[in-house]
Amino acid sequence: MELKTKVYQKENNLHIGRLLKESLSDMISSRFLARQLAVRDIKAQYRQSYLGIIWAFITPLTTAFVWIFLNSSGTVRLSDTGVPYPVYAFSGTLLWSIITEAINSPMASTSGAKSILSKINFPKEALLVSGVYKLLFNSSIKIALLVVFVFFYGIGFHWSLLLFPLAILGAILLGTTIGLFLTPIGMLYKDIGKMISFGLKFVMYATPVVYAIPKEGIMKTIMEWNPLTPVILTTRDLAVGMEPQFLTYYLIVLACCIPLFFIALIFYRISIPVLVERMSA
Q1: pTM value?
Q2: Number of compact structural domains in the chain
């Protein structure tokens, strides 16, 4: 039987269109592997936990209850939010937790696979898809709990509630895009992961997560220019049946995210093999 001969030669691999096409192709072809990795990680995450899946929304619940207590006790005076404050605070912290998880997901999935990256040749995009699967799983639980809050506090059903999951996907897209750009740097320097966690705590208070945008002052300007603001507000407005006031800005942010996501995907595809080679050296 005649053996196939393949000649390797130096060539320019930085063909943007080809890299993007290969990356998207690998994302599609590695769906089964990504699903298996996601199922494994989800089971491992809750296997030895007494509270199990409850941990998926303990953090946003805790943060929301702190602000609800501060507001109800008069310790902190907050401006009118237009909806029952418990719904406002919980929806904000829940949406913020989804965005932060989306930002951390690419780095967490890639870092968690360090042991196999240098040993097994497989599409690295499978790690990204696996992270998205886990993110969607956790988000679905939080969304269900938020819907319970909406009905419990008397807001009830609105047709805009049907668009709420689509707005969540927009938040995930934004977070994942940011995370993709940060992942290669975070793989090189562990300080990046700590800086992200530290920085997001400050950014949260420059975003209308637990309180409304002030009517005047420097914080009003900061919040209105913050690209996370329209994502939080539009998604929350759709959940509670209010007219989205930042819908145009939200659509602009999403429109910018789409090309940036593709650029980040190419950046990830180029950098990960270099990082794997460095880690195995």
Answers
A1: 0.84
A2: 1
